[in-house]
Each structure stands twice: as C-alpha cells, then as structure tokens.
C-alpha cells in the first residue's frame, strides 16, 4: 500500500512534503524515515495507534522539534525555519488539549492568534506609525467575524476557564484560523466530542475553508470523522508510515488492521 515517491518528484506541486523525517528521544525512534505529501486544498488525516508518532510529527512540522530529513511548504524547504517564522509562512496548529490562556476572554484568546501575522518585525511601527493599531483593529474585527461564524459570538467576553470542552475546542480552532493559515494542523479536534458536535464543527470549518486555499492535516482517532472529511489518509505505526492512500483503501489495508487490532 505504501508507494514510495521518487525523490526527484518529492515536493513538486504539494502543499506539504515530508522527506525522510526522523527524530529520536534518548534512543527511542519516535519517527523513522517518514515521507509523504499533502495536496494543496485537501483534507488529509494522519492516523495510527497510540504512541505511533502523530503528535511528534505535528511538532516537527510546526517547528517545535527539529527533525532529520526535509520538510517543505509549497516547495520551500522549512526544515531549519523557526516555529514563529513557520507560523508567519502560514502554518497554524491546535493541540490535543486546547491550549488557552486562563483568565482571558474568548475574544482575547482568539486575537492572540494574530501574532502569527506580525511579519514586519519591531521596526514596522517606527517606519509606519499607526500600523500596529490598524492591525490590532483588523484582528479584532476578523476575530469577531470568526466567532460569529463558529457560533461563539455570544461568549466573546466570557473567560475561557469555565467553558465546556466542546467550546474550548472551538475557540482554539478559531484562533488557529485567524491568520488565514495555508496549512492547518489539527491535533485530535474531535477528542471528547461526539459526532453530533464534531460533524457540525467540521461542516463549518470546511465551508469557511472553501475558496481560501487552506490545506488541512488532521490527527484523529474518530474514524467516523476521518471517513467523513478526509480524502487521503496516512497511517503511522511505531514511527513509520505503513499506509498512504485513499480513505476507503486504507481502511481495508491488512497492515493497518493489524496495527490497530494486533495479529
Ligand atoms: N519530548 C519527548 N521526549 C521523549 N519521548 C517522546 C517525546 N515526545 C514523544 N515521545 C515519544 O515518541 C513516541 C510517539 O509519541 P506521540 O505522542 O507522537 O504519539 P501519538 O501517535 O501522538 O500518540 P497518541 O495517539 O497517544 O497521542 C512515544 O513513544 C513517546 O513517548
């Protein structure tokens, strides 16, 4: 099922391309020789049993971990680019457990996502007085629009602390969308949600993404959600890719069934 891509073709026309990505922690090979591509505008699911290396791969793509191998965004090698710079290039992510700032309102937590757009550096406000204010105002307006789209407008001024899990999850996704990322990495967005919550959330997300050229890479344990939204599925097991293809094919792949269910 895993069809190796010829090295000369790697990265051509792909939004994200991983070539021989590897990382070890004190002798444990969390990722070994991971190579696959994600097409522009697609939704790709990254699945695999617990400990397969999915979150580690997200940490490598977003730049939290430095891995071996090559990571390309739209053909550009970002393997040694710092995580803040990757964010400015359009890589956004969410975390397995929503990482929100305690004590801050929903709106404030979303507006923080705008820092990924601060590409101009510290001299920008000196060279263009008023620019920061304009940018902050724009970020607030866009955040308010997104909160409306995702059904959170009525909670705008509410501190995030007491919100139910499903709403915290939505706030984190909205924050990741604020800078209009080109590549969105979603780490288990349906964890703790039933289909009745995660399906409408994805309907909104995919409707929002239409016409925005956003590519989504999704780590997800809910196969219901994977089958609903992902055309392409990559399966990791023990740090290596064991399958890479169309969702329905991958689901029937004996190597995948064995990885999940054992012999
Ligand atoms: N910072 C780290 N230090 C040491 N080991 C790590 C570190 N990060 C990940 N690992 C190890 O790498 C392996 C892969 O972990 P990872 O969290 O990426 O798996 P996962 O597929 O996301 O699992 P799950 O589905 O349970 O979230 C595990 O053996 C884990 O213990």
TrEMBL record:
A GO term for molecular function: L-phenylalanine transmembrane transporter activity
Keywords per UniProt: ATP-binding, Nucleotide-binding, Transport
Classification via InterPro entries: AAA+_ATPase, ABC_AA/LPS_Transport, ABC_transporter-like_ATP-bd, BCA_ABC_TP_C, P-loop_NTPase
KW Protease (keyword) present: no
GO BP field: D-alanine transmembrane transport; L-alanine transport; L-isoleucine import across plasma membrane; L-valine import across plasma membrane
PROSITE patterns found in the cross-reference section: ABC_TRANSPORTER_2
Highest taxon, organism lineage: Bacteria
Domain ABC transporter positions: 16-263
Any GO CC annotation of this UniProt entry: plasma membrane
Protein name: Branched-chain amino acid transport system ATP-binding protein
